[in-house]
Amino acid sequence: MHIIAFILGSCLVSAGVAAVAIGMGHSGWGAFGFAVASFVLAQMLYLVWIVWMAQVASRRKPLGQDSSTPAEQVQAAVQKG
Question: What is the mean pLDDT of the chain?
């Protein structure tokens, strides 16, 4: 997922949460608090999802495969000559 799409979606959900909160009779600051809380919760869930995806990807990597980045591999190849 692209970060811009995530942030835009989170902002839209936060705006929706604020609109519902105002519709339910909460004050402006209360609605703002609900919106911020929903935005923070979305970011925490996104972080958990990214960590989970990284763990799954690391489990799929065959044993013995070099864990260096492509840039490190190129650098090592250049140094070897």
Answer: 83
- Residues 2, 31: contact at Cβ < 8 Å? no
Positions of E strands within the chain? none
Alpha-carbon gap, residue 32 to 54, rounded angstroms: 33
What are the distances in angstroms from CA 2 to CA 12, 54, 55, 77? 16, 16, 19, 32
- Please report which confidence band the pLDDT of residue 30 belongs to, taking 50, 70 and 90 as the band edges: very high
Residues whose CB is less than 8 angstroms from the CB of residue 6 and which lie 6 or more positions away in sequence, other chains included = 42, 46
- Report the distance separating Cα 68 and Cα 81, nearest Å: 19
Residue 66 has pLDDT above 70, yes or no: no
